[in-house]
Design a protein that fits this description.
Blueprint (H helix, E strand, L loop, with lengths): L1 H6 L5 H4 L7 E12 L8 E7 L2 E7 L1 H13 L2 E10 L5 E10 L16
Parallel strand pairs: 3-5
Antiparallel strand pairs: 1-2, 1-4, 2-3, 4-5
């Protein structure tokens, strides 16, 4: 699956760490969390996880309204946006566009943990 994602220019969490702040870039991962705190004035925070780590995604209210169904319906989500690096470990992707990659999940090898 990773070669297919790389072909589309989708970076891993580890690769994003090397991207300069302010650069437009793309990443993807399994959605492990969506939060819309009341104190965030409509901003949505999405956590993506891949084989190398996590990516924090910030979705402004206008962008959320434009892409709501994709954001809420995707388990494997590609995000295009602007990479921001702050002090210390503060890093996030300011989202501009989304692609639902759920059809690719069928290609992931899975292991069953069966108990008797």
């Amino acid at each position: 699956l990773r070669p297919r994602l790389a072909k589309d220019g989708l970076l891993t969490a580890a690769q994003l760490d090397k991207v300069k702040s302010g650069r437009r870039t793309k990443a993807c991962g399994i959605v492990t969390g969506r939060q819309k705190p009341q104190t965030a004035k409509g901003t949505l925070f999405v956590t993506l996880e891949d084989e190398t780590g996590q990516v924090q995604v910030i979705v402004w209210p206008k962008v959320y309204q434009e892409h709501r169904s994709t954001i809420l319906g995707a388990r494997l989500l590609a995000v295009e946006g602007v990479w921001q690096r702050g002090d210390g470990d503060v890093r996030h992707l300011l989202a501009r566009a989304f692609t639902n990659l759920n059809p690719l999940l069928g290609r992931l090898p899975t292991e069953s943990r069966d108990f008797r």
